[in-house]
Amino acid sequence: MTGGRIGIVGAGAFGTALAVTLARDGRDVALWLRDAERAWKMQEKRENEARLAGVLFPENVSVTADLDGICDADAVLLCLPMQVLSGFLIGSGKALSGRPLVACCKGIDLERLTGPSAIISNEVPSARSAVLTGPSFAADIAMGLPTALTLACREAGLGETLQQQLSTATLRLYLTDDVAGAELGGALKNVIAIAAGIVIGAGLGESARAALMTRGYAEMTRLALAFGARAETLGGLSGLGDLVLTCTSAQSRNFRFGVALGSGQAFDPSVTVEGAATAKAVSNLGKKRGIDLPVTRMVAALIDGHIDLPNAIQTLLSRPLKKE
Ligand SMILES: NC(=O)C1=CN([C@@H]2O[C@H](COP(=O)(O)OP(=O)(O)OC[C@H]3O[C@@H](n4cnc5c(N)ncnc54)[C@H](OP(=O)(O)O)[C@@H]3O)[C@@H](O)[C@H]2O)C=CC1
Ligand SMILES: O=C(CO)COP(=O)(O)O
Predict the structure, then answer these.
(1) Residues 6+ apart with CB under 8 A from 277
(2) Terminal CA-to-CA distance of the chain, rounded, Å?
(3) Residue 118 has pLDDT above 60, yes or no
(4) Is the beta carbon of 246 within 6 A of some atom in ligand 2?
(5) 136: Cβ below 6 Å to ligand 2?
(6) In this structure, are residues 11 and 65 in contact, taking their beta carbons and an 8 Å threshold?
(7) What was the pLDDT predicted at 220?
(8) Per-residue DSSP letters for 257-284?
(9) Cα dihedral sign for 308, 312, 314, 319?
(10) What angle do CA 43, 83, 247 make, to 5 degrees?
(11) H or E element: which one contains 156?
């Protein structure tokens, strides 16, 4: 499909990659960032040097710091980190009233303990929401490598329209109405990816990583089913697919953060690591709902410095033996 006008909020790595791939496929794209001077420079330079260096913008990408520039778009993609989404919508959501808003962030809000679609419904009640999630590194999308994602939307008609508007020759969107499953899979896989990174960073071996990924997947499924998700969604792109990608690739920031934690190295605090806040949020959710989440709880405790690595490993290994 070609044509249509897409607005993108957030010129980070992911927002920029989506802007470029959608524009190459014929959409007019307006890419919004919060700083007017940087927006002007990016518009002139035709490149996002800070977040996606080396990828030139097609001429049908325009960069703006004015939300009026995107409020008439057919769909607006919210490509902000999870923990800033509510603040952005409280401050600026009014400008996006009535628009289809597609959350592209992965995580659970630490204060509200909800995913992005509930934040959108609360802060912009007139908006029609969807969630775009699944296994994809921004660099791969920007290079035009084949990528498949999940588009989750409760409204059948809107979901089908967005699926057409946001799929390209190399970006293939699969549709589901299981928003809870898609959101929770995307949020939790980042926590498990941190744990997988810790395992590798601490030198515990590939076998331990495979065990961790499998038990982590059981944990993701347990939590998601308790929130009304369907098991098949967790077994799809937004759950298992993204878990595999993120736990096994050094391109992943969550995985690299875990490696640093496991090997006692420092990690640049300016890098977006969604799983860190989400580990705490999900740990709190689990406590509230009485759901056993041993891996998530341990990741949250390690990040907060409430436990050291040898004790964390010992605690996980000494849990009572049980049926798989
Ligand atoms: N990168 C990837 O490969 C993928 C990322 N995602 C998801 O996309 C989301 C965004 O990630 P990503 O693009 O990588 O993140 P980046 O760290 O690359 O960029 C974050 C962007 O958010 C902006 N931002 C931060 N705080 C605010 C705020 N308060 N108001 C307005 N803008 C703000 C930053 O702007 P500024 O520069 O001004 O600080 C920056 O443009 C995450 O949830 C991530 O999980 C999903 C799939 C792949
Ligand atoms: O979500 C992603 C891949 O699907 C990106 O992972 P990171 O945020 O860990 O880099």
Answers:
(1) 82, 83, 107, 108, 110
(2) 46
(3) yes
(4) yes
(5) yes
(6) no
(7) 97
(8) HHHHHHHT----TTS--HHHHHHHHHHH
(9) positive
(10) 90
(11) helix 156-166
Give the tens place of pLDDT for each residue, 221-277: 999 999 999 999 999 999 999 999 999 999 999 999 999 999 999 999 999 999 999
ipTM: 0.99
Top mutation candidate among 66, 184, 253, 272 for ligand 1, by most atoms within 8 Å of CB = 272
Of 110, 117, 112, 274, residue with least CA distance to 181: 117
The per-residue pLDDT for range 64-86, each reduced to its tens digit, is 999 998 989 999 999 999 999 99
Residues shown for the chain: 324
Atom of ligand 2 nearest to the CA of 106: 1
> Within 13 Å, how many C-alpha atoms sit on residue 180's CB side?
13
DSSP 59: T
Bridge partners (DSSP) listed for residue 62: 30
Per the listing, tokens 């009572």 go with: 320
Q: Indicate the pairing of strand 52-56 with strand 47-48.
A: antiparallel
C-alpha separations of 51 from 29, 62, 249 in Å: 18, 17, 19
CB 103, CB 117: distance < 8 Å: yes
pLDDT in the model for residue 101: 98
Nearest atom within ligand 2 for CA of residue 134: 4
pLDDT band at 1 (very low <50, low <70, confident <90, very high): low
Report which bound ligand comes closest to the CA of 38.
1
The tens digit of pLDDT for each residue in 201-236 reads 999 999 999 999 999 999 999 999 999 999 999 999
Beta bridge partners of 196: none
Beta partners for residue 129, in sequence order: 101
